[in-house]
Design a protein that fits this description.
407 residues; alpha+beta; six-stranded antiparallel beta sheet; 7 helices; disordered N terminus
């Protein structure tokens, strides 16, 4: 299978080079000067022709056996994203990945799709060798990620963009050459082999809602020759992305604040919405070592090692301490949130605040059970617990913290 792959890659590169030269030599001046969103009106029939965009033909080998895109390192590095998933999504129209919010472990290992097929139908390779799959089987079945539910694909977010020399994308199924995991297509990352030192830095921030989502990224690449036949190339990247919030607060939280103004400041994330609906804060690093040595003209010893670690902090749903009919909130624009009179829905309080296990107060004088605490009276062996109403008088919003390690 490797022999077939090597031949296929050689043909791909040859076809890409030929197609690029042909396109450069035959490119009309009109195409170079065309605006992506220009409407031209003819004098005869007064009909308009609107050009809304097109795929860049100078990077696609359309005359090869299968359509192949070759994405350069400069194009990948120019994307304002610390995640390889987002960088590829911005460049390749048929590649999609959602930004999950409150989706359990699928927040930390996002499932992409290529040509409408989930991640375990996309073959990912580094230098023509299969990239290992993530340990996570996708657990979230809602929203844009429903397609990936139950899939287990490679987590390309662990690849630092600065380590990539080019990305070759086969945009159709290739099961005959690669196997059933290539039904959706193939992504082959060609790693850098060049010499020198390169440093990159990026900073960004959203300015909606007063500004949030600050993002930092620094990356570096070092390459050197190893004798006359070998090379060593090392890449490292660090990123830290802040939380964004684009949702409205829960109606029950507004109702609680109106009924208990002295406790309003103790609502989670006050004065922001009680639960975050946006991107979760994350921080991590990625490293990749690529090395090779030509033993003979036809054989090579090679080594590439990818080590990455990321940590995310996801917001879960708000747990309310009260239950009542809460008026609905409809204003999510730039103005203040308003309660709509005459429209309500029934919202129950979280079970932690009403379970019998938390309603029996600690006996007086018990040294192992504080006076403000409660006991689990329904157990034969009484155990000390906590009074949720004392700890969280305005309710609470759990946080789901995940650490993702790749090697």
């Amino acid at each position: 299978m490797r022999v077939l792959h090597s031949r296929a890659v050689s043909k791909i590169w040859l076809a890409c080079g030929t197609a690029t030269l042909a396109l450069l030599s035959a490119q009309p001046a009109l195409a170079q000067d065309a605006d992506p969103a220009v409407a031209e009106e003819t004098a005869d029939d007064e009909k308009s022709i609107v050009v809304i965009g097109s795929r860049r033909t100078d990077r696609s080998a359309a005359d090869s056996a299968s359509p192949v895109d070759v994405i350069s390192a400069e194009e990948l590095g120019s994307q304002p994203a610390a995640n390889m998933l987002d960088a590829v999504k911005n460049i390749v129209p048929s590649f999609f990945v959602s930004q999950n919010t409150i989706s359990d472990a699928s927040t930390f290992v996002r499932s992409p799709s290529l040509r409408g097929l989930p991640a375990d139908n996309i073959l990912v390779m580094l230098n023509g060798k299969r990239y290992n799959r993530s340990a996570l089987v996708q657990v979230y079945s809602g929203g844009d990620t429903a397609l990936g539910f139950g899939s287990q694909g490679a987590d390309i977010s662990a690849i630092p963009a600065i380590a990539v020399g080019n990305l070759q994308i086969l945009r159709e199924g290739a099961t005959a050459q690669y196997g059933s995991d290539a039904i959706g297509g193939v992504l082959n990352y060609g790693l850098r082999k060049d010499e020198g030192i390169e440093l990159q830095a990026r900073y960004g921030q959203y300015f909606d809602n007063g500004g949030d989502g600050k993002s930092y990224q620094v990356a570096g690449n070092f390459g050197t020759k190893f004798g006359d036949r070998g090379f060593i190339n090392l890449s490292a990247e660090y990123n830290k992305d802040g939380e964004t919030s684009r949702g409205a607060t829960r109606p029950i939280a507004l109702q609680f604040a109106a009924a208990n103004p002295s406790l309003a400041a103790q609502l989670p994330h006050f004065p922001k919405p009680v639960q975050n609906w946006g991107s979760s804060p994350s921080e991590g690093y990625k490293t990749l070592l690529n090395a090779g040595y030509d033993v003979t003209d036809n054989s090579e010893l090679y080594l590439f090692v990818n080590v990455a670690r990321s940590k995310g902090n996801q917001s879960f749903n708000y747990r309310s301490p009260i239950a009542q009919n809460a008026p609905l909130v409809r204003d999510r624009g730039s103005g203040p949130e308003t309660l709509l009179p005459g429209q309500s829905n029934s919202i129950g309080r979280n079970g932690s605040f009403g379970h019998p296990a938390y309603l029996t107060k600690c006996p007086t004088g018990n040294v192992t059970c504080p006076a403000s605490g409660f006991v689990k009276s329904n157990l034969a062996n009484t155990q000390q617990t906590f009074n949720f109403s004392t700890l969280y008088p305005a309710g609470f919003t759990p946080r789901f913290i995940g650490v993702n390690k790749e090697m």
